[in-house]
């Protein structure tokens, strides 16, 4: 039975100071406005996270997002055994149940389920895509097309701002395979009286180039240099964009990939409603190489696999290794 999509209300619970992120207008980037381009570069160099104002740049994209949320709310409320028919044991396509990775507290697994759609697989009409993608192909195609266009615009303007020393377009050519992926997440509501069986999404840096996130609900936190963990305020009409490890490496470490996580925004540490988020991960071509946090020359494909393998390791292994958080932090303290 279909369920209603998440509420559009942005009720703010009582909490301490939230993250102060810059805002960049998509319309200015589309136009190639020099001032907007400078603001974008500054945001990626200093913050690594920023709001992208979609309004006036691609209003249809926001409408497609609403349609996708409605479809996915119904999908996630199916019986577990039905959703598991779409489990592909893959990090780029198919359904993934809860508790497959470490959660946001020691000893607890994650508390989210997800559906992933590979851009390449969708374009190639692969039989591997999930059943819902086949029946609602128009919505998924529209969303991925818009999301890819938006992040490609951001990347283009960053490349111009950085100059010829960093030819980012060459690393993202359309004629080579990549792991660019759409992921839709649901963090199910938790019973306040039940034993805590999982918590959020553990701290990490994103592995790819740019992440485009749309979410109306609280939960996303970023690790800041002087104020520790801070929540990112959901802002109407805006996506949240962040730099990933691959872009940091490809930019000669000029741009920041920032450690972030997802946790409930209440003292009970319970998800008090179903939380939905939609992320599009732009990633380089699989055969692009760079030096990773351990000084190895690796391909983008290998770094992708290394990151996901690390996410599934216990907390003590993640804490003793630089891969999960991209070498950016140690013991919840930024070191880069």
Automatic annotation (TrEMBL):
<dbReference type="InterPro" id="IPR050231">
    <property type="entry name" value="Iron_ascorbate_oxido_reductase"/>
</dbReference>
<comment type="similarity">
    <text>Belongs to the iron/ascorbate-dependent oxidoreductase family.</text>
</comment>
<dbReference type="Pfam" id="PF03171">
    <property type="entry name" value="2OG-FeII_Oxy"/>
</dbReference>
<keyword id="KW-0408">Iron</keyword>
<protein>
    <submittedName>
        <fullName>2og-fe ii oxygenase family oxidoreductase</fullName>
    </submittedName>
</protein>
<keyword id="KW-0560">Oxidoreductase</keyword>
<dbReference type="InterPro" id="IPR026992">
    <property type="entry name" value="DIOX_N"/>
</dbReference>
<dbReference type="InterPro" id="IPR027443">
    <property type="entry name" value="IPNS-like_sf"/>
</dbReference>
<dbReference type="GO" id="GO:0016491">
    <property type="term" value="F:oxidoreductase activity"/>
</dbReference>
<dbReference type="Pfam" id="PF14226">
    <property type="entry name" value="DIOX_N"/>
</dbReference>
<dbReference type="GO" id="GO:0044283">
    <property type="term" value="P:small molecule biosynthetic process"/>
</dbReference>
<dbReference type="InterPro" id="IPR005123">
    <property type="entry name" value="Oxoglu/Fe-dep_dioxygenase_dom"/>
</dbReference>
<feature type="region of interest" description="Disordered">
    <location>
        <begin position="1"/>
        <end position="20"/>
    </location>
</feature>
<dbReference type="InterPro" id="IPR044861">
    <property type="entry name" value="IPNS-like_FE2OG_OXY"/>
</dbReference>
<dbReference type="GO" id="GO:0046872">
    <property type="term" value="F:metal ion binding"/>
</dbReference>
<keyword id="KW-0479">Metal-binding</keyword>
<feature type="domain" description="Fe2OG dioxygenase">
    <location>
        <begin position="177"/>
        <end position="284"/>
    </location>
</feature>
């Amino acid at each position: 039975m279909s369920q209603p999509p998440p509420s559009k209300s942005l009720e703010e619970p009582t909490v301490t100071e939230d993250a102060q992120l810059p805002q960049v207008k998509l319309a200015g980037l589309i136009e190639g406005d020099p001032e907007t381009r400078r603001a974008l570069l500054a945001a990626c160099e200093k913050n690594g996270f920023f709001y992208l104002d979609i309004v006036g740049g691609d209003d249809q994209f926001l409408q497609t997002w609403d349609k996708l949320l409605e479809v996915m709310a119904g999908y996630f409320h199916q019986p577990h055994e039905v959703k598991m028919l779409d489990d592909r044991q893959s990090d780029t396509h198919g359904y993934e149940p809860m508790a497959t990775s470490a959660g946001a507290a020691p000893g607890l697994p994650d508390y989210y389920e997800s559906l992933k759609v590979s851009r390449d697989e969708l374009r190639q009409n692969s039989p591997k895509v999930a059943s819902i993608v086949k029946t609602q192909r128009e919505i998924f195609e529209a969303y991925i097309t818009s999301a890819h266009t938006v992040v490609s615009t951001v990347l283009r303007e960053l490349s111009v701002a950085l100059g010829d020393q960093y030819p980012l377009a060459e690393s993202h050519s359309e004629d080579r395979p990549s792991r660019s992926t759409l992921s839709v997440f649901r963090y199910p509501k938790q019973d306040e009286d039940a034993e805590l069986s999982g918590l959020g999404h553990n701290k990490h840096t994103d592995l790819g180039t740019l992440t485009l996130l749309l979410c109306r609900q609280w939960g996303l936190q970023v690790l800041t240099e002087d104020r520790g963990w801070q929540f990112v305020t959901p802002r109407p009409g805006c996506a949240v964009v962040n730099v990933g490890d691959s872009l940091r490496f490809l930019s000669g470490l000029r741009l920041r990939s920032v450690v972030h996580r997802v946790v409930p925004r209440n003292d009970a540490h319970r998800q008090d409603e179903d939380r939905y988020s939609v992320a599009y991960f732009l990633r380089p071509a699989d055969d692009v190489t760079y030096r990773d946090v351990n000084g190895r020359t690796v391909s983008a494909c290998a770094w992708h696999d290394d990151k996901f393998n690390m996410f599934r390791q216990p907390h003590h292994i993640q804490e003793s290794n630089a891969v999960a958080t991209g070498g950016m932090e140690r013991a919840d303290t930024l070191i880069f």
